[in-house]
Amino acid sequence: MTNQAFQDSYPDDLSHCYGCGRNNPHGLQLKSYWDGDETVAQFQPRAEHTALPGFVYGGLIASLIDCHGTGSASAAAYRAENREPGSLPALRFVTANLNVDFMKPTPISDVLELRGTIREIKEKKVVVDITLSSGDQVCAKGTVIAVKMPDTMSPG
Amino acid sequence: MTNQAFQDSYPDDLSHCYGCGRNNPHGLQLKSYWDGDETVAQFQPRAEHTALPGFVYGGLIASLIDCHGTGSASAAAYRAENREPGSLPALRFVTANLNVDFMKPTPISDVLELRGTIREIKEKKVVVDITLSSGDQVCAKGTVIAVKMPDTMSPG
User: N or C: which end of chain B has fewer CB within 10 A?
Assistant: First the structure.
């Protein structure tokens, strides 16, 4: 696995996301890495992330898939351009479409693992397929269609 | 609008969801109601729910659509059976598929409104189409395919 999380290479003013921003102390602070040609992230759900007792609520699963997807899109775009992650101008993506299949109830007790594969990459659009597993069980599958961040969202 | 939120008619042991459970003090506590044949919910994002400064992160939008969808599915199932919401046996639904189109950056400052319409209703499956708006702008559209809660998730 690579050493630096994708999200930790984002510029400071793009690092406030509740799902994955290092500058959001209340948030989930998801960290995603390359593992060969796949992207991987792990997350330990908190007790309050419950749906029904013992299981994770769907919104957390959707949030993790979403942020792992946009992070993977950004990393894939840097890699496609042979650029150092985080080098300027920043390549940051937002989600145009998120689709999640909830396949099994997802236990809240154990670490969840997300694994992403880059299905399609164009200059302004990256499609990422993601599985979310608990142990050896795939509990959810998702696809993120990520697009280059519009200028209207840029803080800079 | 009806007076009691769908989620407030759930049995106590089914009311721990981070997105919509009244028994989850850390959660979002989304409340959904009938407005004629549509379902409606409002939510004021918190400061930490940011994506980039000024805008809501996608995971919150997905979470709200998901919980409004399953709540709407439950309410529609009770209505279809001419039963009082919350009467036993409980009709509780979970999400099989969540699909969200993020159409515009969603401002964090204002109250968000979700409106649901029941596209399809069968005994074990309800499909709900949902818009999420800020003011008069629809910022996201989603569809929730909700299925009757499997016995393996039931705490009872």
Answer: C
A38 CA: distance to closest CA in chain B (Å):
22
Residue B88 pLDDT: 87
Determine the pLDDT at residue B153: 67
Measured distance CA(A43)–CA(A36) in Å, rounded: 20
Is residue A62 a contact partner of residue B63, using CB atoms and an 8 Å limit? yes
What does the block give as tokens for B73?
Answer: 């599915």
φ and ψ at A67, to 5 degrees?
-70, -35
Number of Cβ pairs < 8 A linking chain A and chain B: 147
Q: What predicted TM-score, i.e. pTM, was given to this entire model?
A: 0.96
Contacts of B81 (CB under 8 A, 6+ apart): B91
User: What interface predicted TM-score (ipTM) does this complex get?
Assistant: 0.95
State whether residue B104 is helix, strand or coil.
coil
Domain B6-153, CATH: 3.10.129.10
Q: Tell me how far the alpha carbon of residue A137 is from its chain's centroid.
A: 19
Best mutation target among A26, A55, A95, A151 (most B Cβ atoms within 10 Å) is A95
What confidence tens digit (pLDDT) does each residue in B65-91 have?
A: 999 999 999 999 999 999 998 898 889
